[in-house]
Each structure stands twice: as C-alpha cells, then as structure tokens.
Amino acid sequence: MQYGDVRRLLVVLALALPSTALATAIDEATRGRSAGQVAVERLVRHGVAVYCADRDSRLVALTFDDGPGVYSRRIAALLRRAHARATFFIVGQRLTWWRGALAAEASVGVIGDHTWTHARLARLGPSGLRREIGRTRAEEIVRTGRRILVFRPPYGIHTAAADAYVRRLGMVQVLWDVADSGVGIRGGSIVLLHETRPQTLPLLRTILRDLRRRRLRAVTVPELLANAPPAWTRGANGLRTSC
Length: 243
Hints:
The protein is an alpha/beta fold.
C-alpha cells in the first residue's frame, strides 16, 4: 500500500469508525512504547487531566498551540539551538497551509492534537468529535509516523463527552499552569505559548535564557510526565494533577 493510500485510509477511519475501533486501527500501525507513552497510559487509565508535573523536578514543558504557521520553523530553530524540546498542539486544517513546518517541529519535540478547526468542544456531538479530534490525530500520525499521545482542548474548555472520547483514543488531556508568559515558570510547569503570534518569538528567547540561567530544562510533555510523575487530586471536573 502506498503512502497516499495509507493516509486516505486513516482519515476515512477517523470519520467513520467508532472511537475504540479507530484507536485499535491506528495503534496497529504505530507500535512501540516509550517511557513517555507508559507515563501517558497510566494517566489515561485514571482519566487524569494534566496541568503540571512534580514541582521538585528541574524539568518544564514548553507547549505551542494553534500552529503550524509562519513562525513554526523559527520556533523550531530557536529550540534546536538551545537544545530544548517542546510539544506542539496542531490545528489539523493548517497542516496543508504550511508544508514542512510539521516536520521541523517534530524534529525538536512531539506533536499533539488541538482539533481540526479549533472548534468549541461543547458544541460537538459524537460525529463532530470524530471529525475534529479523530481526524487530526489520524493526519498527524500519517505525516509524522509517530503515536499521538497528547490532546489540548481549544480555549482550555473540555466536556465530559470529549474527555471520554480523548481517553478512548489513548491520549492524555494537557492543560497548563503558565500562559503566554515567562513569569511563574518553575519545576514541573507546563507553559502555554501560541506559535501563530509574533510576540512569541522574543518571549521564547527570554524564556530559554531564563531556563538556562536557572538550570531548568525544557522537555516534551510525555518526557516531563515520565521523568517527573505528577501527583493528582479530585477537582470539580474529575481527577487532575496537583499544582
């Protein structure tokens, strides 16, 4: 089967199959378990939403939403020069607009699912969740050849139905404890940045210098979860990491 045929098949599966069947079909094509995947699987089993990791760690996770875009390659270059890694939560429909950006990002980190159109999850039924979440995950797997372990809901708003669907696909839901700022970053932090905003480039330079000065290291979310396992507690919307 040719590359294009595999890609079309996975996209069709994302739209047509129930979530459990989709997860099985995709996992058959993407075997191999890393320490990060094992850590993610543990949190998925318990239905834990991730906001941070162990505060005694020297690791942090820089995450970038809404790409790929015009700044994607420059962000990847900054990270590479700093020997830093990151997580990129991709909007699926943008993959055709910025060719090559996904490969640049995957070379310095991992790719996550941020829905197909940046849709508000509360407005979606089961078929809408498959179109928005399942389709993006399938496209990303085909384009990178890697398992997609992490999901971030647009606007940080998630619902019980979306949570259940994401969990059945084997992804952990990742939020954040620091947003679009270098202020408040500490060990275990998950930092939200937006790769489509021009101000992110100078902010990223500042953050990377500050992390180096403080001897903190930027890793991907799965790497953070594997090396700085978080504690969790029960919040209003279920289990979440304790920050």
